[in-house]
Write a structure and sequence with these properties.
The chain is of the alpha/beta class. The chain contains eleven helices and seven strands. It starts with 8 loop residues before the first strand and ends with a helix.
Length: 203
């Protein structure tokens, strides 16, 4: 098996943070890959607390389909003839909660730049490291705002992508259903419980 020289990838490098921030990175990277017609790969650096090894028994990604494939980065890089040259030619993007850490060129490109041009066709692999919901930057980028709005009719970009990408395995679904049945068997009670809290929050 070989890797095509024409293939282009976005590698989502997982930050060493909690699952919530990792989901933010996953969803944002998916949208970035979609807008730039690149295949999405995931890479969990070794020895992370919330690594793929600790989560793979509980969540799964959809099967590879169309032009966006959610494969592990390690599985792809093994097919590259010259990994050293790959790293030399790779483009790196960094977006962080702490502004001083964020790469200003990356931020500008996400907010108002042509991302395909910014990444460059010579960079077969583009590594994006982020611990924030940078998909919001893409939503206001004038070059992509209309495309995003037409693809997500109710403007709930994050929820739709997250629901598609991150799927609880059957064991998690079973545990959740059992919890709901044991704690919230009376649906009428649940309704009035949330209604009560809604009224209290308004008042």
């Amino acid at each position: 098996v070989t890797i095509s020289n024409d293939a282009r990838y976005v590698v989502c490098v997982m930050p060493d943070v909690g699952l919530g921030n990792q989901v933010a990175s996953i969803v944002s990277s998916f949208l970035l890959a979609h807008l730039t017609s690149r295949t999405l790969l995931f890479y969990w650096p070794p020895e992370m607390k919330h690594s793929w090894e600790t989560m793979r028994d509980y969540i799964e990604f959809p099967s590879s389909s169309s032009s966006l494939l959610t494969w592990q980065y390690e599985d792809i890089v093994k097919l590259v003839e010259d990994p050293v040259m790959l790293m030399r030619n790779a483009k790196r993007m960094l977006v962080n909660q702490e502004t001083e850490i964020t790469d200003p060129e990356t931020l500008e490109a996400l907010l108002c730049g042509n991302l395909t041009k910014f990444m460059g066709q010579d960079s077969q692999f583009v590594f994006i490291t982020s611990n924030v919901h940078f998909y919001r930057f893409l939503e206001v980028n004038p070059l992509y705002a209309k495309t995003i709005k037409s693809a997500f009719k109710n403007d709930d970009v994050f929820a739709q992508i997250a629901k598609f990408l991150i799927r609880p395995r059957p064991v998690v679904r079973k545990a959740l259903n059992e919890f709901m049945k044991s704690k919230f068997s009376n649906r009428k009670y649940v309704f009035f419980f949330f209604l009560f809290h809604l009224i209290c929050s308004i008042s």
